[in-house]
Amino acid sequence: MLAIGFAGTFAATLEQPVRAQLNVPCNIIVASEAGIVSQLSGVDVLVTMGFTREMGEAAKRLKLVQVPGAGLDRIDRSALPAGAFLANVYGHETGIAEYVIGAMLALTRSFARLDAALRRGTWESQWSIGTPAPPAWPELSGRTLGILGYGRIGQCLGRRARAFDMEICAIRRDVRRSTEDELTLLGGLEILDEVLRRSDYLVIALPASPETRGLIGREQLRAMKPSAVLVNVSRAEIVDEEALYRALAERTIAAAGLDVWYRYPTQAGPTLPARQPFHDLPNVLMTPHVSGWTEGMLRARAKLIAENIHRTARGESPVNLISSSA
């Protein structure tokens, strides 16, 4: 019988959906990442967002570390026991792409402000009597969308943006994999300055790495259009926190939709998501890392994790196998 460990809050949310799809006998353990360590000696498959050296030393028969997300920034690959596979999952690209389109529309059309005003009886529109009509809203059609990270999320977003008749400039590591896509501009990080200059909307979908952390700083933000909107659905640290706050406060760029943050809760109770007071700025859409939290994502991830547990039981390598040394 396989022993399956679900470690951490996010992994625990997938325990029941995964269990419902298993057709092999399993002993399932659910614990915090710290709490799982004392039980790891008998665990065959560990579902976790984080893997530490302490975990690796405690694991005696671990066959698979299954990350229940796409990001591997909390996985110490050097700590994986000999012979243990590492795999991740996706399934979040549709939800994130839909979120980005929604964020661009909400920020462009000032939905939150209009809603709040109308609840007070104030008509910020051409229907108001005694006050000038506001400027007409821009449309997404004909605008340029810059996508930093043209992988699963970026491509999913690109397909939806083309339905809005947007021009797309994209950056990805292996440009050969997207040469057939309908892109206005495609290249690696060497074209970053050009993408920043052209973009009316800039979406960050890059993985966090030594190469991408701090990629967007003061100079890069100043290179963007004053009317540009930035949307980050990847990792906060790709954009310098202070530089982003200053750019928004001083209107160096027009607005930002931020779903990933510089500070996350470590205990119950309110937690402001950054050192800088983004919450005081009217031109920021703030959401608590929920862009990919959809029913479709949960179904897709539970299905793939269950499949990899079945593969482990059969002695096979997992789907989305990742090199432990990459």
Question: What descriptors fit this protein?
Answer:
single chain, 326 residues, alpha/beta, Rossmann fold, 2 domains, 7-stranded parallel beta sheet, 6-stranded mixed beta sheet, 13 strands, 16% strand
Give a description of the structure.
This protein has helices at 9-13, 15-19, 53-58, 93-109, 111-119, 152-163, 192-198, 218-222, 241-249, 295-313, and strands at residues 2-7, 26-31, 45-48, 64-66, 85-87, 144-148, 167-171, 185-187, 201-204, 229-232, 255-258, 284-286, 321-322. It starts with a strand and ends with a strand. It is elongated, with a radius of gyration of 22 Å. The protein folds into two domains: 2-91 and 295-322, Rossmann fold (3-Layer(aba) Sandwich); 93-286, 3-Layer(aba) Sandwich (Rossmann fold). It is built from ten helices and 13 strands. Helix 9 (241-249) links the parallel strand 10 and strand 11. The strands form two sheets. Strands 8-7-6-9-10-11-12 form a seven-stranded parallel β-sheet, sandwiched between helices. Strands 2-1-3-4-5-13 form a six-stranded mixed β-sheet. 29% of the residues lie in helices and 16% in strands. The protein has 326 residues and is α/β, with parallel strands linked by helices.
